[in-house]
């Protein structure tokens, strides 16, 4: 058996190396091989011996040439940016030339971070789909360095990225960094799925889950809050006011949270109050409607969510194997992910990329949603009527 050699040279999982060795072994060798757990532990020990020492800090991390390339039989440059061991906030970015050229041509970028799969010395693995980064934090300056480094590397290739839309999660530092680097002509769109999840978490925090599950009107109303994202942008405030005037018992705190976070509409007048209304200082929402409104994206059949990044997270997780792995495990997973992405890009170029399967129910849902939002655009139905006529709630029950 050549288990030790395979452990040093193959990128397969430990169990796969062991199984391949047993497949080639004789019965006598199999009988004397020892316990499988012991063999797998030995394979991992050999692999650790082939890797550099695990750094305990960003300053200790040194990337030899081997770890700056894609690997394989035809290694290519992969590391495009490293702010250096002497910096407090070290940013490392991996991408190939082909990926940068593809990103430069794209009018829409998808960005997201994951914390569980990050090595311990970094805060998060960050993806701008087709390139990968290791970030030490989540401050605006770190995101600005990431974006500016990507732009600089693209310009070195004679490419000039200028995305019209960037879809990301609801993180103020990310949104501010995008606006700072690209300017106001690039629209930052919050992921609609993250909006619905934020509402659901607040429902849980407020202890409203039993009421939500037992009362259909409450469930419908919660879906209508998220459904405000489907109104024309100019009608969102009116839609919010309508919901505030028709809030079911027990949901006022939820509505106040949503209003302060996403709309901050003026409080509706009370016709039974003889006193003149108190003029309150208007406070802008944390995330204004322009960030999370998806009306235009829906009627133009664009993306409302960042699911492309969520899908990447799901496919990347098996390459890592467990939370907070070794830095070297992460870079090897980056290489494997890049190889898969390169395969997809090549297949796409020759017209052989398999079509993504869409479930019939999802396709029907999309068509009905486009039809209903199209009614607003075509016939000029006001946003509050759109909400009141139940055009929204049925789709977004959490």
TrEMBL record:
Residues 127-197 form the MULE transposase domain. Pfam families: MULE (PF10551). This is Putative Inosine-5'-monophosphate dehydrogenase 1b-like 14. It comes from Homarus americanus. The lineage of its organism: Eukaryota, Metazoa, Ecdysozoa, Arthropoda, Crustacea.
């Amino acid at each position: 058996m050549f288990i030790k050699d395979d452990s040093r040279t193959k990128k397969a999982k430990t169990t796969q190396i062991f199984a391949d060795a047993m497949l080639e072994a004789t019965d006598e060798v199999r009988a004397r091989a020892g316990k499988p757990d012991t063999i797998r532990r030995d394979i991992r020990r050999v692999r650790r011996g082939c890797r550099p020492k695990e750094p305990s800090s960003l300053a200790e991390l040194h990337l030899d040439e081997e770890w700056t390339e894609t690997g394989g039989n035809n290694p290519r440059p992969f590391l495009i940016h490293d702010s250096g061991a002497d910096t407090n906030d070290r940013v490392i970015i991996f991408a190939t030339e082909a990926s940068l050229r593809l990103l430069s041509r794209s009018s829409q970028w998808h960005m997201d971070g994951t914390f569980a799969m990050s090595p311990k010395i970094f805060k998060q693995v960050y993806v701008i789909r087709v390139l990968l980064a290791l970030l030490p934090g989540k401050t605006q300056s770190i995101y600005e360095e990431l974006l500016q480094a990507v732009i600089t590397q693209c310009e070195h290739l004679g490419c000039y990225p200028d995305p019209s839309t960037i879809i990301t999660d609801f993180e103020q530092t990310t949104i501010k960094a995008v606006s700072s680097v690209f300017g106001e002509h690039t629209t930052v769109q919050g992921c609609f799925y993250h909006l619905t999840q934020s509402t659901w978490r607040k429902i849980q925090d407020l202890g409203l889950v039993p009421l939500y599950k037992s009362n259909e009107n409450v469930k419908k109303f919660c879906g209508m809050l998220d459904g405000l994202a489907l109104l024309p942008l100019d009608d969102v405030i009116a839609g919010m006011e309508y919901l505030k005037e028709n809030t079911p018992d027990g949901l006022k705190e939820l509505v106040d949270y949503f209003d302060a976070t996403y709309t901050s509409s003026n409080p509706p007048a009370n016709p039974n109050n003889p006193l003149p209304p108190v003029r309150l200082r208007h406070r802008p929402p944390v995330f204004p409607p322009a960030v999370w409104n998806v009306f235009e994206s829906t009627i133009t059949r664009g993306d409302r969510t960042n699911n492309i990044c969520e899908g990447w997270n799901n496919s990347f997780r098996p390459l890592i194997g467990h939370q907070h792995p070794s830095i070297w495990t992460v870079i090897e997973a980056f290489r494997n992910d890049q190889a898969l992405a390169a395969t997809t890009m090549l297949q796409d170029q020759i017209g052989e990329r398999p079509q993504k399967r869409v479930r019939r129910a999802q396709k029907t849902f999309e068509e009905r949603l486009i039809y209903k939002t199209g009614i607003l655009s075509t016939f000029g139905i006001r946003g509050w009527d759109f909400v009141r006529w139940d055009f929204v709630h049925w789709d977004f029950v959490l």
